[in-house]
Automatic annotation (TrEMBL):
UniProtKB keywords: Coiled coil, Kinase, Membrane, Transferase, Transmembrane, Transmembrane helix
Superkingdom in the source lineage: Bacteria
Gene3D superfamilies: Histidine kinase-like ATPase, C-terminal domain
Domain named Signal transduction histidine kinase internal region: residues: 170-249
Protein name: Histidine kinase
Lineage: Bacteria, Pseudomonadati, Bacteroidota, Bacteroidia, Marinilabiliales
Annotated Gene Ontology cellular component terms: membrane
Length: 361
């Protein structure tokens, strides 16, 4: 029943007759307004009808001339001087025409010019009532126009925001798709190395890898995950890498045990840790050092990771321009605009990344 009523309302709104009906109803109300105004304290009923009938067509003519010619051609185009000039002469002509119509209508009824007292014409009342209706109709038209323009702007803005949102989602999916294969390739290489060595640590690595895969394949489909889960994923990854580089790695990790249910975009921190192991440990012939920490305060967090560098490998410089870190920067621009601060320090001995991030919505 509700759908049927809504359908009827929609058909009425889109009907080609609805607009003329509004205009007719408006001018009927104007005619009633004129009749009651001129009949106030007047015993001459015929004169009341003459005033109303004389002013109404002039008011209609002036209103549509303003709304469909003067206003669009001059006012909307900000030609204010010409608009005021033409408006003055148009209103002057309208007043003169209305007085003329009323004057000769009264002559027709009274049969003689001599019998007409000039005060009977009420020129000041005609000017006020005529201009009032014209200005009111123009104001209604302009308010209606402004309303529809604002509606169009809102609709365009809504479409623009929807388009931007879809583009953001597409970019995020692409960036996450780049993260997953890169991460899995490195981890499987680690597992391959341990199985070739027939290490007893291989089962533990498989278990941690399964937890990481579960996190990536299922829980990372959400826009936000618990910061606590993101930290667990980092710990699993670090433990896997510790198994691989046990003899040449010195790592210090400081993660909080409580994160107060803070949420973060999934896999946002992992590329920084990957980068530290890939360039700070695998390319270092001696003992490599990694220091990783995460601190939370209220609704913000600070993540920092630092790794030693091999000065004998000049091609490792400019790590901040790598694909992994570049992807992270793009994701943060999309997900946390103006809510993060990323600082990268790079020299011959160390490479460090500090990320300050506001996690509140």
């Amino acid at each position: 029943m509700t759908d049927k009523i809504q359908h009827i309302i929609t058909r009425v709104k889109t009907s080609k007759y609805i607009r003329p009906a509004y205009h007719i109803a408006f001018w009927i109300l104007v005619a009633c307004f004129y009749f009651f105004m001129f009949s106030w304290n007047s015993a001459f009923r015929e004169a009341t009808i003459i005033f109303s009938a004389g002013l109404l067509p002039v008011a209609i003519l002036l209103t549509y001339f303003f709304n469909h010619f003067l206003v669009p051609r001059y006012l909307w185009k900000k030609r204010y001087g010409l608009f005021l000039l033409y408006s003055f002469f148009t209103l002057l002509a309208g007043v003169w025409l209305s007085l003329l119509i009323v004057f000769y209508a009264l002559i027709y009824i009274l049969k003689s010019k001599a019998m007409i007292d000039p005060s009977v014409l009420h020129p000041e009342l005609q000017v006020i009532s005529l201009n009032f209706i014209v200005f009111f109709a123009i104001a209604v038209k302009q308010i209606k126009r402004a309303f529809f323009i604002q509606q169009e702007k809102n609709e365009l803005e809504r479409k623009k925001l929807n388009t931007e949102l879809k583009l953001k989602e597409a970019k995020l999916k692409l960036l996450k798709a780049q993260i997953h294969p890169h991460f899995l390739f490195n981890t499987l290489n680690n597992l391959y190395g341990l199985t070739m060595e027939k290490s007893d640590e291989a089962p533990g690595l498989v278990l941690r890898l399964s937890e990481i895969l579960d996190y990536i394949l299922y829980r990372c489909n959400e826009k936000k995950v618990l910061l606590y889960d993101e930290i667990l994923n980092l710990q699993n990854y670090i433990e896997i890498e510790k198994l691989r580089y046990s003899e040449k790695l010195s790592i210090t990790v400081d993660f909080p045990e409580e994160t107060n249910n803070l949420q973060i975009a999934p896999l946002l921190l992992l590329p920084f840790v990957e980068n530290a192991f890939k360039h700070g440990v695998s390319h270092n012939p001696g003992t490599a050092k990694i220091i990783c920490s995460l601190k939370t305060r209220h609704t913000s967090m600070v993540f920092k990771i630092e790794n030693s560098m091999n000065p004998a490998k000049p091609y490792i410089k400019n790590l901040s321009k790598g694909i992994g870190l570049s992807n992270v920067k793009k994701r943060m621009e999309l997900l946390y605009p103006k809510k993060y601060e990323l600082k990268i320090d790079e020299n011959e001995a160390t490479f460090s990344v500090t990320l300050a991030l506001e996690l509140a919505e």
